[in-house]
Protein 1
Amino acid sequence: MLILIAGPYRSGTGDDPRKMADNLRRLEQASWPLFEAGHVPMIGEWVALPVWRSAGGTTLGDALYDRIFYPAAERLLSMCDAVLRLPGDSNGADNDVRMARERGLPIYYRLEDVPGVGN
């Protein structure tokens, strides 16, 4: 399955780049177990960050940021088979879960609940 890993990225960081990088690393920690289980992990920021930078984005939360980050996640979700929602407050991740539910996609809240992980 193509699985969107959703969780805090910008939330609660005060836009501190180090805190955001730490959040991205936490999201990425789930990517290897998913890959090893035969899935393709995806994180919205893997797509949105380079698009935002190439479009001239420089200030987190600017109008360009808003035009790219949530829409990128929505476009990715249209291709995903499931969502892994990691712990932590995040409006974006909550929105991902809402959209996944509307599409009837499975939503996992623990890595070990994803088929094939840990087997």
Note: Residues 2-111 form a domain with the Rossmann fold fold (CATH 3.40.50.10400).
Protein 2
Amino acid sequence: MVWGNLNTHVSRAMHGLASARLWLTIYQLPPYAPELNPVEGVWFHQKRSLANLTKHSLDQLTTLVKTRLKRMRYRPRLIEGLVAETGLDLQPP
């Protein structure tokens, strides 16, 4: 699991829950490191694909974003590429 520094991620309660699960490996990101977060690549890809489109309502935009995100699920190489772009080795130690 890759975590940012959201207060719930770094809380004592969360550390207790995580340490009780020996099968779980957590990678804590530095305080500000968007280049290490694969989700940033997803949003960059989405924003680029929406750049020149005009929608007339928030509902239309929401539908379009959901559709584009769903399409990404069926492109495993894209997702793998976004993870690889971070340079992180996500194999358990």
Note: Residues 34-93 form one domain.
Protein 3
Amino acid sequence: MARGPRPRLKGGMVKVRVAMGLAVLAPLITFIALLLTRNGIVSLEFGLDLLAMQVAQIVSWAALAFTILSLGLSLPQFRRLGLISVAIVIVCAVVSAAFFVQSRAIALAGPLDVSTDLTEPPAVAGVTGSPQACPGTTAVMTQVAPAQATAALQTAGFSVTESQLFRSRGVRDGFWFGMGHEAVIRIRPDRTDVRVVARYAHTDGGATCRIASKLIAALQAAP
């Protein structure tokens, strides 16, 4: 027996509601993973690599597949369900694309300890390894004022923990999964050097280098 328009519409609405729930599931999993990681309940590898970059990404692709199927099934009721189905497909496509891009960006290996002076790098407490150079980052060949160094740290999102005549230090608690950094600006009569150290052992897609570049740009822009 053929189904009438009302049962078909009701069935279509159920699919739309399921699609809407799936559209927000992957971001919700990522948010939960972020909270668990930042509060030390799970490790960075478990929260970021497993929950966010694997589980949530798989859910996002499953949501996109279901919403596309839901759109196809809603074509007989397109005047009532088509537009919202198209909107959900677009949202799921954007979410899936964001996971795809971010997962590949975060997987890129970059130095986690960088300095503009590799011969005599600024000292960072508790760090014994040798820093690396970032492409395009060099020392500021002038003696900046301590206030300028402090301002550069603040501009880059650091909380200043030390400000002396020839040295400024700051810490930065990264929002995303608590991937924080420590930075030291060393001031000498003829140059100012920067060192940035990641407080995690995980690929970051070059985030440490970008922070160092931001600090140097702020120092160079200072009057």
Note: The chain has a mean pLDDT of 87.
Protein 4
Amino acid sequence: MTYQPMTAWVEIPVTDLEKSMAYYDEVFGWTSQMVTDMGPNPIAILDGADNGGGGHLYPGKPPATGTGATLHLSVSGKLEDAAARVTKAGGEVLGPIVDIPAGRFQYTLDLDGNSIGLFELGKK
């Protein structure tokens, strides 16, 4: 079998595309872009994509709060600062910071109750 590195593209369902785009931009320091020519609905392409993946927001029905998959998104800077931005932007921080060998993460909920893990890569 040929080795294939992990590549991911995430689609996050939201009820208010513009409001959620502003939320993610504030929390992650991104400048997302609204596009209307990639399917039947407008979507917001999340800035911060790199060669390993990316994602977008789309008008949809989020799962019941905390019941869907948890997406872990890398933050730049300190995890504590990103968590403070979550609260300021109207999201919810859940539980304590968790240390793992690769770094640290903290669970949050976005404006629609989507489970988003904030991830800070550890120092090598």
Note: Residues 27 and 88 are 9 Å apart (CA to CA).
